[in-house]
Amino acid sequence: MFKKNVIRLVRRELPPRRGRPKDPRLDAAARMVAQGKSVKDILRSQIPNFDEMDTYSRYLAEKGLRASLSRRKRSGFQFGSAS
After folding, report:
1. Which end of the chain offers a freer environment for a tag, N or C, measured as fewer CB atoms within 10 Å?
2. Any idea which of 9-18, 22-31, 41-50, 72-81 has the lowest mean pLDDT?
3. In a domain, 38, yes or no
């Protein structure tokens, strides 16, 4: 009985499907890419003072966003959808 209750409580806190829960900022970035915006434009809209950041920090932010969008594309996320 105890084990069943613990498993039920743990499952209730987990996301409903495999993988990470969706990040609304990444959802918005994917929609912007679908609309034809550049990655730098997206970063400027999502990160305050992006243009004042040092070159290496801007590079890392751009690399991270590109990697995230690439993973989404490979996993079958539809960039044009509203979800």
Report:
1. N
2. 72-81
3. yes
Specify burial of residue 42 (Cβ count, 10 A radius: 0-12, 13-18, 19+).
buried
**Token output for 49:** 């003072």
- Give the structural domain span for 28: 23-83
Q: Is the pLDDT of residue 29 over 80?
A: yes
Neighbours of 77 (CB within 10 A): 15
Residue 47 lies in a domain: yes
Domain count, the chain: 1
If you average pLDDT over residues 27-31, what whole number do you get? 91
44-56: pLDDT as tens digits: 999 999 999 999 9
Select from 36, 30, 37, 41 the least CA-distant residue to 79: 30
Average pLDDT over residues 14-33: 78
